[in-house]
Amino acid sequence: MMLPAQSSRLQAQAAPLLRLLATIGTDGPLATALAPTEWISAGSAAALLHSLSSRSPLPSEVMTVALMEHRKLAAVTVRLEGCSGERGRSCNGTYHRLPDLHNDAPQYKKEGGPQLIYFDSERQLWKISATGSTNGWAYTNSSKLLSGQWAGAYSTADGLPLLYELGAGQTASSASSAASAASASFASSPPAPPRAGAAPAVDTPDWTREQDGELARLLESLAKSKGMAARDLSSESLARAVAQQGRFARLQAIPIDALHARCQVLCELNERCFEFLLPWLALDRAGTPGTLAHELASVKELLFNEQKKLFFERIVGATATSHAQLTFRFDRQAARRAVATAVGAGDEELEADDASMFEQLLQQIATAGGRRRRSPREAWDEPLPFMVLANHEKAFNVEFAGEIASDVGGPYRHVMEDICAELHSAALPLLVLTPNHSQPLALDRGKRMLSPAASGAWALQRLEAVGALIGVTLRTGSTLPFELANVVWLALLGEAPSLQAYAKVDKSFTELVTQVRDNSHPSCPDMDPEAFDAVYDCITFAMHRSDGGSTVELKPGGASLSLTYHNRSEWCSLATAFRLHECDAQTAAVRRGGAQILPLEALVLYTADELERLVCGQRDWSVEHLRKYAEVRTADSRSVGFLWEVLAEMVREERELFLIFVWGRSRMPEGAPPQRFIVDSQHVQGDPDEHLPLAATCFFQLHLPRYRSKEACRAKLLYAIYNCKEMDLA
Questions:
Q1: Cα–Cα distance, 579 to 587 (Å, whole number)
Q2: pTM metric for this prediction
Q3: How far, in Å, are 254, 261, 280 from residue 266 at the CA level?
């Protein structure tokens, strides 16, 4: 599926990405080395190694790409600094490229001295001659120039050098000053010429990651609204958008020329990344610090969502399977009775009943895979074969007990929506409201998290099913209206949430940890130890679970150990670790289920917000968006006009019900829907104002009576979306 970085040709093509990542900067170990200087491949073999020597191992992909490029160095002037020792110091200075190659590689001669430097691409070693003789080279004992030791005439006390480019108008002293501020580069020409019309890079040392992220979102939004490539956006259109849209406040103080130049850098980053690099990266290594995949994932918010989607779809297509599509039968009436009973009596009732839509699905998957269990309250004897759902268009065919329905997509979507609704109800003990639900000023109050109490084999198997359902939506391009907190989406991506991100789950907890850690109680900051101990005397090294369940000791004997001024750092560390990793087992179960449907590494370039929109779609879609993709097949423009007006006046919850009525789903997918919304006339006998509209959910189609008034259209449409739940009634 994902190919390793093997092709030297494509590795060479990927080298410009290193320069672009350098211009952007990263949060990882490359940050100091790369920003804001523009890098090229030789720099990644010299100064990059030096920068990483005390932080993390060199990304092997970076080293390979860099070494493949050394024989193509085109820098005219470089500076060598940092050599120590009697022999080493004589090598420091400015070097100029010689017209003749040495062993098919560029060589450089010191200004005012005999010293020579060049890279032996065959042996993968840097070589320096202090005497100028090509027979007396000294070299490193490995290709890691800045972490090896010199051999030959150099002693082990001789320090290793740094190599810098001297750009136009730059002196040796200014290059040295720049190098002390940030690791500099050893320049070469890129393997591919710059694109026509590309703006030259500009020095923008004050760019922040947040500004880059805002600019990337602005470019995507503006390019989509104008129907053009982000690279082709004019300076004027960028300036107008920044001025008019308050959500890009971080960009308002940036000069327009710098803004436009940065736009070109971001566009080049995206084009080079998706065209040359990504197909050859092992994305399953994105969680390993020091790999190029990890560094690329650290700038994921700068990659355009449309490009990510195309790349993701190629992976999904390349990993498609040919499972025979199964047909599952569902009794929706029995499921509604079971859920109602469980909500009224507590979740114990439903745990003992297979009647919910969710349990009906799991039972049929288990039967298809030959799995057995002794009772509904026990787990199956083996993991359930969720891979039988890994089909392209829909996971399975649907039949309804006691309902007239032919599944061309509509019944299937209804089943998925019903299952998602059950998972969000009190009937199933898998998802719980976050602690923020009871905190009036907190964020994401209506969101849910994985239940810390769902820890037994029975619950974990069902959480695997939740992961499989998420995988199904991603593989089929459908949506499910999960209301999960941001930290859940982060965890599903394999990312550890920060304490700041956890504020969207439990605002009170994050505020408490911050106050204890910084001794910043709002009513009495900077307390002395005695006052601190008195204020926090009621807090111990034991905590309730996030769902308000059992108490867990943060350390042995923690329930009897009070929080004090002197142990506050330990308490903050233990409490934070407990909260952030409280649902690790549940998250792992969801990821196991998802991995049966599609390769999870295909998601590493998505942010948590992007993944949520990809799975859940748009909840607050506009009527104008629906009209844009509508196909009206009736000459009765008056009744269709009533329809648009009524939809525009509906609240969000009513528009969700309308979408379920006509399409079997409550959310609108991002971008263009996979089907056009069809509106045609319903020919009825008698007064059309007395008739309900009809819908064909399989075809996203509404049969609309020729209503004579807007009031009649509104009344009948609202009645239909609230009351017509069965297939033979709609």
A1: 13
A2: 0.69
A3: 16, 9, 21
